[in-house]
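Why run this: before we spend reagent on co-expression, it is cheaper to look at a predicted model of the complex and decide which construct boundaries make sense. The entries below are exactly what would go into the expression plan.
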Amino acid sequence: MIVVMKPASTAQQISDVIARVKSDGYDAHLSQGEQHTIIGVVGESPTPLREENYGTMEGVEKVMRISAPYKLASRHFHPHDTLVPLNGSHMGSKKVLIIAGPCSVESREQIIDIACQMKEAGATALRGGAFKPRTSPYSFQGHGEKALQWLAEARERTGLPIVTEVMDTAQVPMVCQYADVLQIGARNMQNFSLLNVVGESQHTILLKRGMSSTVEDLLMSAEYVLSHGNNRVMLCERGIRTFEKATRNTFDVNAIPVLKNLTHLPVIADPSHAVGLWEYVEAIARSAVAAGADGLIVEVHPEPDKAISDGRQSLKPERFKAMVQQVQRIAEAVGRTA
Amino acid sequence: MIVVMKPASTAQQISDVIARVKSDGYDAHLSQGEQHTIIGVVGESPTPLREENYGTMEGVEKVMRISAPYKLASRHFHPHDTLVPLNGSHMGSKKVLIIAGPCSVESREQIIDIACQMKEAGATALRGGAFKPRTSPYSFQGHGEKALQWLAEARERTGLPIVTEVMDTAQVPMVCQYADVLQIGARNMQNFSLLNVVGESQHTILLKRGMSSTVEDLLMSAEYVLSHGNNRVMLCERGIRTFEKATRNTFDVNAIPVLKNLTHLPVIADPSHAVGLWEYVEAIARSAVAAGADGLIVEVHPEPDKAISDGRQSLKPERFKAMVQQVQRIAEAVGRTA
Amino acid sequence: MIVVMKPASTAQQISDVIARVKSDGYDAHLSQGEQHTIIGVVGESPTPLREENYGTMEGVEKVMRISAPYKLASRHFHPHDTLVPLNGSHMGSKKVLIIAGPCSVESREQIIDIACQMKEAGATALRGGAFKPRTSPYSFQGHGEKALQWLAEARERTGLPIVTEVMDTAQVPMVCQYADVLQIGARNMQNFSLLNVVGESQHTILLKRGMSSTVEDLLMSAEYVLSHGNNRVMLCERGIRTFEKATRNTFDVNAIPVLKNLTHLPVIADPSHAVGLWEYVEAIARSAVAAGADGLIVEVHPEPDKAISDGRQSLKPERFKAMVQQVQRIAEAVGRTA
Amino acid sequence: MIVVMKPASTAQQISDVIARVKSDGYDAHLSQGEQHTIIGVVGESPTPLREENYGTMEGVEKVMRISAPYKLASRHFHPHDTLVPLNGSHMGSKKVLIIAGPCSVESREQIIDIACQMKEAGATALRGGAFKPRTSPYSFQGHGEKALQWLAEARERTGLPIVTEVMDTAQVPMVCQYADVLQIGARNMQNFSLLNVVGESQHTILLKRGMSSTVEDLLMSAEYVLSHGNNRVMLCERGIRTFEKATRNTFDVNAIPVLKNLTHLPVIADPSHAVGLWEYVEAIARSAVAAGADGLIVEVHPEPDKAISDGRQSLKPERFKAMVQQVQRIAEAVGRTA
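The model came back. Tokens follow.
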């Protein structure tokens, strides 16, 4: 941590800060400049360093953190890529894995039918929502446990593991009975109670980036899960909210190489939510893999104009097949397979 | 709803859209322009109109919603201001009410001491966190039920009702035992499971705007609570996330008159989170009331440099008192009291 | 400047950085921590310190600037408020000054008529566009020099000084002949050629914040003007671009007290562009003055439904009069006059 | 255009709007709904339809535009790809073209040396700044005409055409003497005076997206150039400003397929500014081409730690060569060459 003193700070204020640093158990190094005095705070202590407190001391202009606030998620402490098992492969390995399926599980027939098509098209896992976080209380909220049962049946038929969202701590035990991967949606990325409970569950977690969360916020939320000894966590870039309204969200493709650099966890992309319009989903899927994504999660629906949710961004199965082939070519161009 | 057809759309595509509108139970009005054919969809039907589905039909360029997606929260359906009772006054009345207290309840002594000071300074209710949503799993997470008990004790001493955050559905029954107002934090504004449970609780709700939520998103989240027959809801503008980093958030003061126009619910402001630096809190508190806010929620701490959380944005009690006086003068300047 | 070394940086890399610091003429102070080595760079030298260069050196994790990059605009170097003369008063003084008029000068009659009404309503200066930066090449681009002549005529009649936009270096000499204050629009805030030329002109400058410019960017643009020895500069907050689309822009009211703290230059607000809808302009005008704005610039048009530009955000003259009275009450509530 | 009336609008207000539509020379189609009356405005007339004016009429809730505001830039009016000649190839053709060079032209030797290396590495054109828009007036502002002469010399040696920025209308004639392509920087994207003058020049234009400009704003700025009969315009996505600060800007890769759909003009990407850190430039270059970019513009410097500007995002020549090879593989994977 670095404490920058105001140009007009007094010797007393400077020594107060240094005294506080020492009483917190750290070392203080002073750099006296023309304008600014800088105090470098280093060392280790059981007392946490609270920047905010130093920020309110007399004579302090600003406080700057040096170390990343996450540890278990950091590549610095864990240099090797974490591989998350999925259907006999591993997310984070050389192979780019694709999770696909409808936004919502609408019926038993629908999900079994799509599952078979996804399997044939080369998907590694099946996605489908049983509990749906909807902006409106009047929109379809998901078929709940019935949908989970249908998903399980689809898994039996196809062998595809199931990725499904859990919205609330109370749902976790039930969803764990059926799902292979628990998805934490963008709106719940900082639902810390939920992160703690899914961390405890030891299930595989797919953690989506919140729409206004920074890369660091995402890693801090992963840290919640990891702090329970659960390191089967995949991070998912799904677009952020910006001023641009030509697309549903702005896909932050920069975040992919940045995350691959900062963390050992696998990083996947959701091109469907990232752009929100099916005609652009293939292009964004390609861009994500070209930038280094380890996998994709894609919305597919046989009849988007009848989909109960997210029809506008759902690929039809034949278009999804074309996407898979394009992604394979890109994967090979970057020295991977798909 | 309005469906805009592509310039190159065919007569068949246009009649397919019209047929769909009719089969959904609505009327379709056609405006044939040089470039664009526009189909106005009006009428009422039990079938919900899903814009996304129309958006995927052949020949459709875009679909535009006309009506607001919220109903119970809308001033159109409920023209008179909703008054939310608070400590013998009402939030939403002519009187500007101020909720104040520390970010976290740190100890029994602390909260009782601050409560007495807040009461004396003119606060209407006491805020204090028992469960804290923290970005880092390693930060203080709140004293939990113990803190709720201390808050209750502070209420006994001062008569100030208690506003405290609830983070998870599982906590709602316990928090309801102690709290007068349940606060839904910015990070949980779209935790729809939680909104449903607090809606059912029939407790008074203080709903904070999410940091990347639009005004409409906020009203839709309020609609979740209202749809349970619970209309004691106060909305809170607390700053949004933008590119500007000189302050913690960007206080969207525009949202105050916009919300007062769109909804009958009271609208309050949180200048502490909105700006994040104590030296600017008074200015933002004044600006909020000048723009029409019905109340304020403000963080106060006797020793910000020792606060466990949010010290950087906490006013000291004497500064808070000065703020109250400034706010009173502004309230009078806009024809209110405080 | 502070250089933070990577945890894995070598002794050689550290000494290379120190050598570079010394060869640039500065002093380097080392703080060796558990994880990070921090190098504080202090002192003075004619060689500019380029953070970017240090950022690319081997072993460097990041480089943090300590000092503000602006000097002439900084309150630190110039603690007293700069007062900018305007029509016998001063922007930046205790009196809140209001500049008002139409977006575009549409005709001789229009501008003279409005000028008389603005004068009567208590405005200090008259605004009106002769050169209009329009998003579309097909929109009205302003009446040019003719409009400047009409503005001059309006000044003769009313005594109100003229504030008008200059869009290009080539227009500066002509606009200077007529205008009292040169306005630099939001889209030209970083047109550095223009800033240099208007700086040289020694005319009073009203510098609007760009819609995606930070407070620091705004001060750096002011620095361009100030560096020509022209310190008659008023800064104008006019709303920034964010994800929220309920209003045209998001008025960053936080910026007002922040700027008042960082700089000695007067700070005014443009509530018309900040919110973009006339029904909210009064509320935003009040909030700006409550937060500490030294003045306002407001769009007024007698027939907004016939205005050639910005009709949606223009107040009618009677509404403007009401706004002036509200602003006066707020000004008094914060110890000023209007 | 569509006019949506307020639920409480009167028959008189509706007929006033219709009368206005007719007096403007258009047809009005009425759709009477339960809540809202919708007026579809179609037809053609010499009178421009000003949405803002309708928006201020009594009883009007909102006005929605239907047609794109650009015409010459629209793929609808010009379905075939525009090919912009560059060094014997064409931007917008099957071949992905790469423009490369230093941020600033620092010396004659530097630019000639880099030009030779860029040519050898496979670049199609040479970039280099003679006039530099710098946030600080104290930063290096470019060597001006001398730099243009050095660029011309580098062209003579290598045959590489020159891409260089023009910042001001007054510079256009001089820059046209030397440059093959005039670059309009992000900060000048809405410098409409400059757009008019470079449009008139009939030189090839590289138009960079402003950091807070929408895709539509970018197309409107292109429309300015095109309206002068100059259709040799390349659009450049270079990252937008968002809340995320892990990278310099947020590369809006979505904009690439969206632009390719909306316009016939070639679309290129600037991965250097888009991410701002050299270690991620290759990944972003790959993602851009995978998403459909027609070309790239990349910053290269032999000694980034000595670069006068943008060192942090400049690739060393050997790294640039590696990038070119990666881009070639991606180009082939999407059925193109590079």
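The interface with chain B takes residues 212, 214-216, 239-240, 242-247, 250-258, 261, 274-275, 279-280, 283-284, 286-292, 326, 329-330, 332-334 of chain C (CB under 8 Å). Chain C has eleven helices and 14 strands. Bring this page to Monday's planning discussion.
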